[in-house]
Amino acid sequence: MKIFELPNIQLLKKSLDVYSRQHEAIAQNIAHANDDDYKRVKTDFGDVLKKDLSRRLKVTDPRHIVESTSPEPHGLPTKEAKVDMSQEMGELAVNQIKYDFVARNLTRNYQMLNTGITGRSR
Questions:
Q1: Contact call for residues 45 and 21 (beta carbons, < 8 A)
Q2: What DSSP character marks residue 73?
Q3: CB-based burial label for 33 (10 Å; 0-12, 13-18, 19+)
Q4: What is the rounded distance in angstroms from the CA atom of residue 92 to the CA atom of residue 108?
Q5: What pTM, to 2 d.p., does this model score?
Q6: 18-48 pLDDT, tens per residue?
Q7: What are the residue ranges spanned by the domains of the chain?
Q8: Cα–Cα nearest to 103, from 5, 7, 9, 4
């Protein structure tokens, strides 16, 4: 196994990608909030992370991790009702907190690798 392809690092990188896509979808909703014919884009891409994580987990019973039964493909935005600006701003704030948390963890993982390779901490 290559040192930069550790499962936890790969999951953190995928998480950053997912949260970035969510941010773009929320920004699109906010940009079109005043368009009468625009339908809100669903911004919950959490199914993508759950699906990826469930592939890595070992379960002893098939009922432990249940796949989503939603009809839309995982990770693809779907159109919903009108845009509620308060909801979008709330989701944007939550998404930003999640992104920052994952970014800090990824930085911490790389710092630990750096310490392990060089034998020195910053």
A1: yes
A2: P
A3: middle
A4: 24
A5: 0.68
A6: 899 999 999 999 998 888 888 888 766 667 6
A7: 3-118
A8: 9
The residue among 77, 79, 95, 93 whose CA lies nearest residue 35 is 79
Under 8 Å between Cβ of 25 and 91 = no
Measured between alpha carbons, how far is 10 from 44 in angstroms, rounded to an integer? 20
Helices (H), 4-118: 7-31, 46-56, 85-118
Residue 16 CB contacts under 8 Å (≥ 6 apart), including other chains: 99, 102, 103, 106
pLDDT in tens, 46-103: 676 677 666 665 667 766 655 544 444 444 455 566 788 888 999 999 999 999 999 9
Confidence at 5, pLDDT banded by 50, 70, 90:
confident
Buried b or exposed e, range 5-19, using 16+ CB within 10 angstroms: eeeebebbeebbebb
